[in-house]
């Protein structure tokens, strides 16, 4: 039996529910771990640059796996892919929960990542083939509500667990839920897809791995190792060469692993550009605000998590509302309004002081997240709407891959700006302090002065990084003015069968 994506077809709500719960668990697990890194460092006796591999490694595996998902979605059924992805994620979670040395924990995280990398593009593709264009905004809004709930509760829940239990409880908490979701998927999902005769080009897979993996590793390492490290610029150079080779190879193939021809559709190309730029700006808040509140202001991890909670809740609640507004008004009005709010609030974050109140930070972050909620899902949905159905797997895989790469680039850029500007401000503040000193300070006064200089310099470095993020957001705002409401490109008659095959589950 085939399930068409025509307007008269009934969406597979059971399948969507199972997929959304699976994606939620995978997303929640990633947000849970960030606040536990200091505890893991202490318990497993590793330094900050080593423990960061729990995040970098996860991102690397995602960047390597996601480009293959377009092939996997076309080759295999939703049921088979979901069970494989959820099994990998569950196995990784169980191993991580019993890990007593760092290499085992890192390996477990990478196994988790290989499962979660399949989950998101799979869910996005099922959403696209389940709903007609005029209802996709509302559907994507509900999808956004569920996924935004993860970062909303993740930091606060993680802070509470870390204060009362061992960090391994983060994985023990997720394990039974993952097992239940896996069992539900096994019994509920039906395998109806006919065998598709396509093969994975192994050389393309190698080029993709070197290309995206090299870029992600290089940019992720730039913040800690510096741009002058051969390990950084060397891997970025290898990544660029491999990626160019990969793109040229895909353009020559009849059945490419990842189809770059989708960029000939102008709204998809524009939406990809905007989401990449917004991702880079968005990481400023995720990265810089925790540094400011914990390192400079001395706010506890639990209170820092609570501070981010209202903004994440606003984003979650607004997601279905934004989806319905998108169906009614299209993407340009929403994206331009949201990016204007995001740009203004990011600019105000570049004016932080040592006395900025907790309430001010909560409100400013909440308004910023309100703006963000009007951008990401409408822009990406508008771009995907222009693609013919046969390109849905490639569109979702491309979007998720570009999100990983732009996130890594944004993080590296902002960390570099913060670090370099902190050093510059420290030298300037120290020279100014010595110039105005009435007498030679005592050792105790000198130590206190150095600490104050370090704090002020870091604050100014964070403000400068937020200002760069403001400029990045402004670029996205300008690009959003060119958005037009997308209409699906016409499929050729012989491709209607491919459209139906994509809808089979």
Automatic annotation (TrEMBL):
The chain crosses the membrane at residues 12-33, 53-74, 81-105, 111-131, 138-157, 169-188, 200-219, 231-248, 268-293, 305-326, 333-350, 465-483. It is a multi-pass membrane protein. Residues 15-488 form the Major facilitator superfamily (MFS) profile domain. It is found in: Cell membrane. The keyword Nucleotide-binding does not apply. It comes from the Bacteria. SUPFAM superfamilies: MFS general substrate transporter. Keywords: Cell membrane, Membrane, Transmembrane, Transmembrane helix, Transport. Pfam families: MFS_1. Gene3D superfamilies: MFS general substrate transporter like domains (1.20.1250.20), Multidrug resistance protein D (1.20.1720.10). Belongs to the major facilitator superfamily. EmrB family. NCBIfam families: efflux_EmrB (TIGR00711). PANTHER family: MAJOR FACILITATOR SUPERFAMILY MULTIDRUG TRANSPORTER MFSC. This is Multidrug resistance protein B. It comes from Bacillus badius.
